[in-house]
Specification:
Bound molecules: adenosine-5'-triphosphate
Pfam families: AAA, AAA_lid_3
Number of helices: 13
Order of helices and strands: HEEEHEEHEHHEHEHHEHEEHHHH
Strand content: 15-25%
Keywords: ATP-binding, Chaperone, Coiled coil, Cytoplasm, Nucleotide-binding, Proteasome
Protein name: Proteasome-activating nucleotidase
Radius of gyration: 34 Å
Organism: Haloprofundus marisrubri
Number of strands: 11
CATH class of the largest domain: Alpha Beta
Oligomer: single chain
Structural class: alpha/beta
Family: Belongs to the AAA ATPase family.
Distance between the termini: 55 Å
Length: about 400
């Protein structure tokens, strides 16, 4: 706190000092204070100059940091940390390099750590452990709990999936005796929420196979060199868990039509796709691993993945028709306390254009209406209200999306 004039102790004895002595004492004090003031001003100027220097440095580092983060990064593994720096080995080309790091970064690194490096091979950041990445990208379920009875309105699709995926797993000898190769990959395509994942899970359940799911979008937009390696890992995990159903969701993220641009992001997507194709091609003796892929964007797919021996069984999974919607309503209300006044055929008619996922949401919301009303029985009106609410929410979301793209 700054001293106020009242706090200042006077440099003379108020009672004893003469007027002259008081003036002299005050002049002396003034001189000292002026000298101190001068000194402080110098220090302040120095501090300001120093501050400016730090501000500039901060700006430079922030800029540098931003630049480092923006340019595409490569993945490498730390081999050795020594006095000269850190020896890293790049993924993909296996080239070794010695790179310098800051003291803070050095403390954080250990041999075998995965790091992201920039074009000049400077370490930009330390990455998660490989096992963590695998866990995030791959979902492994040893016994998925979806059965064919849980899927409504996809009779034809179900039969086709069973024939192409289940038969080769259950009765491989049939194919060898007849002398034909079982179909390799199955591609399910159709709008979101129509039961593609469910079909893959149900077939894994039926054949006691491990269900391994990976989303194409998780593989790209990450770090250069990672996508292809993860695809390799994925097939390895599948082989280790035979019999297995390998489900690649959103395959369009790694297998869309080639674009002309040559950005490193595109190159990375290409590399990931090439790895997928080579895994599939080199998988002639696929053993007990079946591959199912899914997409909402069939029109975007690169024809290369549809060639014979790859995803050569194409199964469309459309939105359910009237009858399908009625069955799906019945499936999702199986365990609900539904009143006799609920008319499923009428519900199916009402929910025109709904996907299976929409119907599931309507059933849950109808249950919520009953709970809010302190009831345990769900009436027809609850379903009607739920459908209206969900439609209104969808309209809101659509409006928001179009605003975002406007
Ligand atoms: N045909 C269906 N029968 C019963 N329930 C369904 C059906 N389709 C979707 N559902 C419900 O919607 C949920 C989501 O479906 P699922 O994940 O299989 O859709 P998807 O087609 O794989 O969607 P996405 O393309 O968005 O990945 C399911 O868990 C289920 O509750």
């Amino acid at each position: 706190m700054t001293d106020t004039v009242d706090d200042v102790d006077l440099p003379y004895d108020e009672e004893a000092a003469s007027q002259q002595e008081k003036i002299e004492a005050l002049e002396e004090r003034l001189e000292v204070l002026e000298a101190q003031n001068e000194e402080m001003r110098d220090k302040l100027l120095d501090a300001n100059a120093e501050n400016n220097k730090y501000q500039q440095k901060l700006e430079r580092l922030t800029h540098e940091n931003k630049k480092l983060k923006q340019s595409p990064l490569f993945v490498a593994t730390v081999q050795e940390i020594n006095e000269d720096g850190v020896v890293i080995k790049q993924h993909g080309n296996n080239q070794e390099a010695l790179t310098e790091v800051t003291d803070e970064m050095r403390d954080d690194l250990e041999p075998d750590a995965r790091v992201a490096v920039n074009n000049s091979l400077s370490i930009v950041k330390k990455l998660e452990k490989e096992t963590d990445v695998r866990a995030r990208v791959m979902q492994v379920e040893h016994s998925p709990d979806v059965t064919y009875e849980d899927i409504g309105g996809l009779e034809e699709q179900m039969n086709e999936v069973r024939e192409t995926v289940e038969m080769p797993l259950d009765r491989p000898e049939m194919f060898s005796e007849v002398g034909i190769d079982p179909p390799s990959g199955v591609l399910l395509y159709g709008p979101p929420g129509t039961g593609k994942t469910m079909l893959a899970k149900a077939v894994a359940n039926q054949t006691d196979a491990t269900f391994i799911k990976m989303a194409g979008s998780e593989l790209v937009h990450k770090f250069i060199g990672e996508g292809a390696k993860l695809v390799r890992d994925l097939f390895e995990v599948a082989r280790e868990n035979e019999p297995a159903v390998l489900f690649i969701d959103e395959i369009d993220a790694i297998a869309s039509k080639r674009t002309d641009s040559k950005t490193s992001g595109d190159a990375e997507v290409q590399r990931t796709m090439m790895q997928l194709l080579s895994e599939m091609d080199g998988f002639a003796d696929r053993g007990e691993v079946r591959i199912i892929a899914a997409t909402n964007r069939f029109d975007m797919l690169d024809p290369a993945i549809l060639r014979p021996g790859r995803f050569d069984r194409l199964i469309e999974v459309p939105k359910p028709n009237d009858e399908g919607r009625e069955i799906i309503f019945q499936i999702h209300t199986r365990n609900m306390n539904v009143s006799d006044d609920v008319d499923f055929a009428e519900l199916a008619e009402m929910a025109e254009n709904a996907s299976g996922a929409d119907i599931k949401a309507v059933c849950t919301e109808a249950g919520m209406f009953a709970i809010r009303d302190d009831r345990t029985e769900i009436f027809m009106q609850d379903f009607v209200d739920a459908w209206e609410k969900i439609q209104a929410e969808e309209t809101d979301t659509d409006a928001e999306a179009s605003r975002a793209f406007a």
